[in-house]
Amino acid sequence: MQERSNNIEFIALMAALMSIVALALDALLPALDIIGLAIGNTDPTNNQLLITLFFLGMGTGPLLFGPLSDSLGRKPIVYAGFVFFLISSFICVVAESLELMIIGRILQGISLSAPRTISIAMIRDRFSGDYMARIMSFVTVVFILVPIIAPAFGKLVLDTLGWEAIFYVQVIFSLIVGFWFWKRQPETLPEPRRSSFKWKKIWSGFLEIVGYRRTMIFTFIWGLVTGSFLVYLSTSQQIFEVQYRLPDLFPYLFAGLALTVGASTLLNGNLVLRFGMRRLIGWALLVYTLNPLVYSLVFSGGSNPHIAWLMLFLGIQFFSVGFLFGNLRSMAMEPLGHIAGIGAAITGFLATVMSVPISAWIGKYVINSALPLFLGFLICGMLAVVAMGYSNYRYRQEND
Length: 400
What we know:
This protein is mainly alpha-helical. The protein contains 17 helices and no strands. Helix 13 packs antiparallel against helix 14 (307-321). 55% of the residues are buried.
């Protein structure tokens, strides 16, 4: 009973560490246009950079924080990330130009990569295999609660206190989670298992990780899915508020789609032990690819369909996402238990290096229609299906 209680709190705390990232992303969405005007930007597509370049910071930060956590332990790195987050949030609040705001957002992404990366490393410290995927699914379910409420909460703060207050709320939330983490979470990497920090070790870790075909294939698929999903995150405000002219409904439409991800992620946590990660990923990728294919054929003219049709297709798309994120990351991390910190850092970096250019390229076409979004899903899905097919082929060869 005590172990079950500890696992529940561990899941909740790991989800809280990840949720700061979701709050920093999703609470800002309703304010993108207003922030853009406040800092002198009049091009809506440039506002997408406040989302996509945040992810760039998220991807590069782990290269430092991951190896440091293998050397110093997990907890000190989380504390350092919180301190840098306070500083970067202050930069965003005082920014008076797009360039300075982008710097602040990149630094926010770098700083929040610490709790996000370390939470994954701590999960890998304690669990492995399909059970790790199960824990990741439950963590993601709790984590999804933030995207459900964050846009509505961000709009409330925006309307009552102004866009600067959104950053203050993020800081307050991070301080609360940091205090909880300090009081309740034991260190998961004892000193005998730690290794000295050396840049050479990062390079050797990179070479080792590249040598794991399984890790590289699933990191590649993860990068494709993340990149196409990031297009939605960075353009959702433009689609719902500008194209469909539904600014008041945007937070609730966003929340509804987040619920589909949460529902499938919860279902994944119950199914993964029965069917295994590999099979669930294969099924989900087929849906992830066929759904935008149907949308692209039916609405090939480019004009946006009725909002109900858009929500239906997006709901199906994101339901499949719930079976992908946790499983893909767990499959990529599975061979890396002995270098979990560096492994989480490098795989995250590689996926981000893929996802940010994908998002930036596709996002610039999402101006007057949602069709480019679905074409992006389709292209990335097709590439992912090919990679998954190759992985299954090699897997069967090795196990015959």
